[in-house]
Amino acid sequence: MERIVNDPQEKQWGMFTHLSAFATFVLPVAGNIIGPLIIYLIKKDEYEFVNDQGKEVLNFQITWSIIFAISIILIFAGIGILMLIGFGIAWLVLVIVGSVAASNGQYYRYPFTIKFFQ
Q1: Do residues 103 and 12 touch, judged by C-beta distance below 8 A?
Q2: Which of 15, 33, 44, 46 has the fewest CB neighbours in a 10 Å radius?
């Protein structure tokens, strides 16, 4: 049975945890990790949902940062640009899907994610 969060504040902070990955447009190198990390550290003890989703977002953002770094290296092999475009679109879609799910109180699990934090 799927768990659903009903507290509006908890859902809102869960959604902000996902959306904070867009901080990468302000801090290009690490904003996608720093944004969610800040919300996670501030709200993890207050809301169980933020604790869970914060770990999920951080795992996803670290995994995809590694993927983007590999793609940048592969620019020299000729396929990196296509990889960056494809992975960039996938990243954007997945962050939006995760944000919408969290705003609905659903515990979202990103696909293709290495579990650094349990």
Answers
A1: yes
A2: 46
- List, in order, residues 6 or more apart from 69 with CB less than 8 Å away: none
Q: Which two tokens stand for residue 83?
A: 């990889």
pTM of structure: 0.92
Domain definitions of the chain by residue range: 8-103
pLDDT digits (tens, 9 = 90+) for 60-75: 999 999 999 999 999 9
- Residue 77 has a CB neighbour count (10 Å cut-off) of 8
Output the six-digit token pair for 73.
């290296």
Q: What is the pLDDT of residue 1?
A: 53
Angular region, 7: left φ>0, alpha ψ -120 to 50, beta rest: beta
d(CA 72, CA 87): 11
